[in-house]
Design goal:
237 residues, alpha/beta
């Protein structure tokens, strides 16, 4: 169901949306629960928002799942996040077997630190969904700076001479996605946190004080309505 009547009448103007899912730990703390409880609730909201992006016809959605810096968190929290990831990967496999979702899964970031089991699942899911059209980018062990280092090293290995912007864009993890239109960050902080540093050059930013587990479908509509009201001049007048 599309809650915004304007989005019902008109094609959604956002082709590529990204989410910084911040606030799971604080949400749990407010309720006297461990941070892991907040992550589990946040995972439920994540799945709901993924489905809604499909309802809206958004071509690509990118979610900041686990950053290169998140390994610094407590062992209990990291283990809980890996368990949630494993559960979600199993759900992805089930979706692909049922063929009920036309989602192309792409994992952004360096997979090498993950267990062999998780890596194999991610690689299988990417391969099995490669012919699907709607892109779901999951940024896992991802950092914007490390992505650029990866891209530059790939271009160097391919002996690219004078590197162009198009060359760099073609070497990024997001090379299969359209240009980024909108980044939504929950949790109240007004920063990007090393996310999609190249891609956000002309993207619109939307910040909300809501913690990720409290985000609703209506909040996504509000972010898109805000996007529709902005003038994207790309450096022009």
């Amino acid at each position: 169901m599309i809650f915004n009547k304007e989005l019902q009448k008109n094609e959604c103007p956002v082709k590529h949306i990204a989410f910084i899912m911040d606030g799971n730990g604080r949400w749990a703390k407010k309720r006297g629960m461990p941070r892991e409880y907040g992550h589990r609730r946040g995972a439920e909201v994540f799945e709901r928002i993924v489905d809604y992006c499909g309802v809206l016809g958004i071509e690509a959605a990118t979610f900041y799942v686990f950053s290169t810096e998140n390994w610094k968190r407590s062992e209990n929290e990291v283990n809980a996040l890996m368990e949630l990831l494993d559960e979600y990967l199993d759900k992805c496999v089930q979706r692909l077997q049922k063929k009920d979702k036309d989602i192309r899964f792409i994992f952004l970031g360096d997979k090498s630190p993950f267990s062999s089991s998780l890596r194999k699942k991610m690689e299988h899911i990417e391969s099995a969904s490669s012919s699907n059209t709607r892109i779901l980018n999951l940024a896992i062990n991802y950092g914007g700076r490390s992505e650029l280092v990866h891209a530059f090293n790939e271009l160097r290995e391919n002996n690219i001479g004078d590197i162009t912007e198009e060359d760099i864009a073609g070497a990024l993890y997001t090379k299969e996605s359209p240009e980024l239109d909108l980044i939504v960050r929950t949790g109240g902080d007004l920063r990007i946190s090393n996310f999609l540093l190249w891609q956000l050059a002309y993207a619109e930013l939307y910040f909300t004080d809501k913690l990720w587990p409290d985000l609703t479908i209506e909040d996504v509509d509000e972010a898109i309505e805000s996007f529709k009201k902005r003038q994207r001049r790309y450096g022009g007048v």
